Amino acid sequence: MATTSAASAQSQTTGSSPFRGVHHLALVTDDIKATTDFFVNIVGMPLVHAMKVPPGLGTGPGNRGNPPWEDVRHYFFDMGNDSLLAYFEIPKGAMPQADRNAVGGMQHCAFVMAPDKWQALRSRLQAASIPYDEVTPLPGLSSLYFKDPGGARLEACCQPNDKDSPDVIGLVLQTKAQARKELETLGSSSEWIDQVTANLPD
């Protein structure tokens, strides 16, 4: 990975994306009570909104992408930095458990944490006898992999050297040459590679 300061990483990325981050990530459960208990009391994400989707938005003509059942519960949890984790509750047994490696599926969702909060989460997982894997996927990054009650794979990340101010993009930011080495394996043109790496540092 490129060695870069937080300031230089910020200068490379600020304004390059029209997005401000995650508003909410919506997942599915068939047991909203167990899911709520898990996220509030073990993971540590406060519940901020509990509702049922209004009638007519599940199977009616006003459906805007909701699960195809009426009156499903839809709960929101605070995942930090003014963003939300949401869960729809579908009827138990109505759908099989998802394959996280299927195309269009969610392989896993990773959350960023300060090191002390990360350590506290690990202790809560241990106390609740919830299995987890502790790995170092990149130099400077520590991760805990675990699953929610429905089997969705989650990751808690911390960057110990950054303490309470993790430079997430700075840790993974590559130079043009580093990214090009991989992109060339796609068999694409040099012009295309130049286009998609234009925001990267030299």
Helix/strand structural class: alpha/beta
Structural shape: globular
Overall helicity: 25-40%
Order of helices and strands: HEHEEEEHEEEHHH
Count of helices? 6
Strand order of the largest sheet: 1-4-3-2
Main beta-sheet strand count, sense and barrel state: 4 strands, mixed
CATH structural fold name of the largest domain: 2,3-Dihydroxybiphenyl 1,2-Dioxygenase, domain 1
The overall pLDDT average reads 91
Give the beta-strand count: 8
Q: What's the CATH C level of the largest domain?
A: Alpha Beta
CATH architecture of the largest domain: Roll
How many structural domains in the coordinates? 3
Radius of gyration over all CA atoms, rounded: 20 Å
Strand content: 15-25%
Give unreliable regions as ranges: 1-11
Provide the CATH superfamily of the largest domain.
2,3-Dihydroxybiphenyl 1,2-Dioxygenase, domain 1
The N- to C-terminal Cα distance equals: 13 Å
Topology of this structure?
Layout: H1 6-13, E1 24-29, H2 32-43, E2 47-52, E3 73-78, E4 84-89, E5 109-112, H3 115-127, E6 133-138, E7 141-147, E8 153-158, H4 168-172, H5 176-183, H6 190-196
Structure description:
The chain has three domains: 22-95, 2,3-Dihydroxybiphenyl 1,2-Dioxygenase, domain 1; 96-166, 2,3-Dihydroxybiphenyl 1,2-Dioxygenase, domain 1 (Roll); 175-202, no CATH class. 26% of the residues lie in helices and 23% in strands. It has six helices and eight strands. The chain has helices spanning 6-13, 32-43, 115-127, 168-172, 176-183, 190-196; strands at residues 24-29, 47-52, 73-78, 84-89, 109-112, 133-138, 141-147, 153-158. The longest helix is centred in the middle third of the chain and has 13 residues, at 115-127. It starts with 5 loop residues before the first helix and ends in a 6-residue tail after the last helix. Mean pLDDT is 91; it is low at 1-11.
